[in-house]
Amino acid sequence: METVYDWVTVGLFAGLVVLFLQRSSEEKPRDSLLEYLVAGLGLAIANYFGNNDQDVIAILLIAGTVAFVLFYLKPFAPGPDAEQ
């Protein structure tokens, strides 16, 4: 954990893991495991580029991964058990 990219990507990955664990305990899964794989790979590749002084590519990949998670995984959407 030497660069800011290490901290940012590991923090985002931890959030992704928490979301996966929360969603995997639901009766009916609403996400595909492949969506989590894409997000995890995006963070890993962004970390690689960031650690190799490719800052613009790393920042774009992090932003793209966050956008992917927000659009496809919808972490702030109410769950199936939410009262309406």
Automatic annotation (TrEMBL):
InterPro entries referenced in this protein's UniProt entry, alphabetically: XrtV-like (IPR054655)
Transmembrane portions of the chain: 6-21, 33-50, 56-73
Keywords: Membrane, Transmembrane, Transmembrane helix
Name this polypeptide is given: Uncharacterized protein
Organism in which the protein naturally occurs: Sphingomonas rhizophila
Lineage of origin: Bacteria, Pseudomonadati, Pseudomonadota, Alphaproteobacteria, Sphingomonadales
